[in-house]
């Protein structure tokens, strides 16, 4: 009975830790992985668990570290020693005999995390562009149009893109793209920013844009670094 | 060896014993070995200088190119370049023996080692000029061509005939003691060809042609690089005597004074032009002075060495302006420092030749040599870079420029703690 209470407290602590870092939408997925493969493991199963979860969610190193720290904090807040084993059962090994890790749909188009993260990055770049010298925004739009042509965007797509950049069109065009095109477009935003403002300002702008997108809850599912 | 006769005017003017055959006495061999090590150490100076001038995301790539110049350059020079440059030179145009040399004497081996360092120096000048956008593979191929062909052929015209014969420029009295033209202008013109072929960095020039500054990521590294280069130059110029004689003293004093004058001259030039006293430009001035004195360090009095260094400063500063107006993106200023100041120094070696000051004949021969270097190197290096561009591709694509060549070329990042925002998500 005591063991059940301890396991329950541990599970609650994990859920609270996930809430801080991943947002509520992935808590169930994360806990399912825990219940299925790690709940009966040794203390260091927690490390393996975070590694597997981070791989499933495609989290970059930094977020993986944040996730681990959040879990440790949550465990300590509940008086659970994260280094103490919950059971003496054998630690599960990741390998061919393991059940498939659940994949989380990062999606494309619509209101997918990828779209929302890309949109945040793009808007941050555009805000920086409009705040800069007179004429930079025009040069930026022209460069974007020119380079989009050499990256497989047809005339109508380029036109839609430029209208969106100029604030004359809604997000419909962008919603229709897949993740790979978001990456290409992010690169084109960088190239156009280089031409309009110079590479130093473009690097700074892109860094700010990525940092701004990292504040979105969707960044846990689709880190903005995936666009770079 | 061929160069030693240039010491004659100094020797005549000072109480210095006549030179024995070079690289025979143990002291000579020891000195040239030390000098070779100092010239080797110059590669570290170039690496720090060029790496510092590059942005953080490209610093490792630049340093890799310096290493490649040293390594591939050594192999190429040993296999082909040494024979072309110093083999028996019956025609005056190139050497034709001592390829893949395996049976050299100890003295000849020391000479080969020393000269291999010079070849690597000529090649590594290019890496700074084309930094941040030229791919590593094609750069290595170009470096091999420079050390195996472009540099040795011109070198044979001036210093050729170590094993017999002689170069056609040397026969006309061309003076270049340690290589203002042979090493530095050749490297500088190769750098110019490379910079033109690869084009400027993304956004380096605004659409209307206005140049945009792209600051280097590590200015202390640049300064340290120049200190090391200055130190290494004592081996570069001093070792070119090929003898541990008191002549080395003249050479080193001139070298040191010209470097100091180059830096002081840059300070004055920037003041006269009303520009900020940039550290990067000022320390480049010291290198400009060193490059300029390299040709005449053994053949001009100290006062003229200072003048040579002083004049190198505006040549470097205004030369950099000219390149910017022509929209040539030279990241470290290699072309003005090595190309233009090498040409100036070679001219100065003719103008200020001890015992034969301002001789028109000598100046004309110097101009002939300067022109010959330009006419040989720029087209051949241009052809090499053009062929690489048309075949394997020379330039990193814009996505790689965005991510930085450290990661895209080498899968390593020089400063991961500072670059994590720009790390991509694991895509190839």
Automatic annotation (TrEMBL), chain A:
It comes from Sinimarinibacterium flocculans. Residues 83-102 are annotated as: Disordered. This is Uncharacterized protein.
UniProtKB/TrEMBL annotation, chain B:
One of its GO terms (biological process) is ammonium homeostasis. Coiled coil: none annotated. Pfam families: Ammonium_transp. Residues 30-415 form the Ammonium transporter AmtB-like domain. Its main location: membrane. It is a multi-pass membrane protein. It is found in: Cell membrane; Membrane. InterPro entries: Ammonium/urea_transptr, Ammonium_transpt, Ammonium_transpt_CS, NH4_transpt_AmtB-like_dom. The chain crosses the membrane at residues 30-49, 70-90, 110-131, 138-157, 219-236, 248-270, 277-296, 335-355, 367-388. Keywords: Ammonia transport, Membrane, Signal, Transmembrane, Transmembrane helix, Transport. One of its GO terms (cellular component) is plasma membrane. It comes from the Bacteria. Residues 1-20 form the signal peptide. GO terms for molecular function: ammonium channel activity. Belongs to the ammonia transporter channel (TC 1.A.11.2) family. This is Ammonium transporter. It comes from Sinimarinibacterium flocculans. The lineage of its organism: Bacteria, Pseudomonadati, Pseudomonadota, Gammaproteobacteria, Nevskiales.
């Amino acid at each position: 009975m005591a063991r059940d209470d301890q396991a329950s407290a541990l599970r609650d602590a994990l859920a609270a830790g996930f809430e801080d870092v991943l947002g509520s939408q992935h808590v169930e997925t994360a806990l399912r992985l825990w219940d299925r493969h790690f709940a009966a493991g040794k203390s260091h199963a927690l490390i393996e668990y975070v590694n597997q979860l981070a791989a499933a969610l495609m989290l970059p190193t930094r977020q993986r570290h944040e996730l681990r720290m959040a879990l440790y904090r949550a465990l300590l807040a509940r008086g659970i020693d994260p280094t103490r084993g919950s059971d003496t059962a054998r630690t599960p090994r990741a390998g061919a005999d393991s059940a498939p890790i659940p994949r989380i749909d990062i999606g494309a188009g619509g209101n997918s995390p990828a779209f929302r993260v890309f949109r945040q990055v793009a808007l941050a770049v555009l805000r920086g562009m409009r705040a800069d010298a007179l004429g930079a925004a025009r040069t930026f739009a022209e460069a974007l149009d020119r380079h989009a042509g050499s990256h497989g965007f047809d005339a109508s797509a380029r036109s839609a893109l430029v209208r969106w950049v100029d604030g004359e069109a809604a997000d419909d065009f962008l919603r229709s793209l897949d993740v790979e095109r978001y990456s290409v477009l992010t690169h084109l935003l960088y190239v156009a920013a280089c031409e309009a403002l110079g590479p130093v300002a473009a690097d700074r702008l892109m860094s700010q844009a990525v940092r701004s997108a990292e504040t979105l809850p969707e960044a846990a599912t689709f880190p903005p670094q995936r666009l770079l | 060896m061929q160069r030693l006769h240039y010491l004659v005017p100094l020797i005549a003017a000072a109480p210095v014993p006549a030179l024995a055959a070079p690289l025979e006495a143990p002291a000579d061999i020891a000195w040239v070995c030390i000098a070779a090590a100092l010239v080797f150490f110059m590669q570290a100076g170039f690496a720090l200088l060029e790496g510092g001038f590059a942005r953080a995301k490209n610093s490792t790539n630049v340093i890799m190119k310096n290493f490649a110049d040293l390594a591939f350059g050594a192999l190429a020079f040993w296999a082909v370049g040494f024979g072309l440059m110093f083999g028996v030179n019956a025609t005056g145009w190139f050497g034709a023996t001592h390829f893949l040399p395996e049976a050299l004497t100890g003295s000849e081996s020391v000479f080969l080692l020393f000269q291999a360092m010079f070849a690597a120096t000529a090649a590594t000048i290019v890496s700074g000029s084309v930094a941040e956008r030229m791919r590593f593979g094609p750069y290595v191929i170009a470096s091999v061509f420079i050390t195996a062909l472009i540099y040795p052929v011109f070198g044979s015209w001036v210093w050729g005939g170590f094993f017999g014969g002689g170069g056609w420029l040397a026969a006309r009295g061309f003076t270049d003691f340690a290589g203002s033209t042979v090493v530095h202008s050749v490297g500088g013109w190769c750098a110019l060809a490379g910079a033109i072929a690869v084009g400027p960095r993304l956004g380096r020039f605004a659409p209307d042609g206005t140049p945009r500054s792209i600051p280097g990521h590590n200015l202390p590294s640049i300064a340290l690089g120049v200190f090391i280069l200055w130190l290494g130059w004592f081996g570069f110029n001093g070792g070119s005597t090929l003898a541990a004689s008191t002549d080395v003293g003249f050479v080193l004093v001139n070298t040191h004074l010209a470097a100091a004058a180059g830096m002081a001259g840059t300070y004055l030039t920037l003041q006269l032009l009303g520009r900020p006293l940039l550290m990067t430009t000022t320390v480049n001035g010291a290198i400009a002075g060193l490059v300029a004195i390299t040709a005449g360090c053994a053949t001009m009095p100290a006062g003229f060495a200072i003048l040579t260094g002083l004049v190198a400063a505006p040549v470097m500063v205004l030369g950099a302006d000219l390149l910017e107006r022509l929209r040539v993106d030279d990241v470290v200023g290699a072309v003005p420092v090595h190309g233009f100041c090498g040409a100036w120094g070679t001219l100065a070696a003719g103008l200020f030749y001890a015992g034969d000051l301002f001789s028109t004949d000598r100046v004309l021969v110097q101009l002939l040599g300067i022109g010959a270097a330009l006419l040989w190197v720029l087209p051949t290096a241009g052809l090499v870079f053009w062929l690489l561009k048309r075949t394997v591709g020379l330039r990193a694509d814009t996505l790689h420029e965005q991510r930085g060549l450290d990661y895209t070329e080498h899968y390593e990042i020089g400063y991961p703690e500072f670059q994590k925002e720009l790390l991509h998500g694991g895509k190839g």
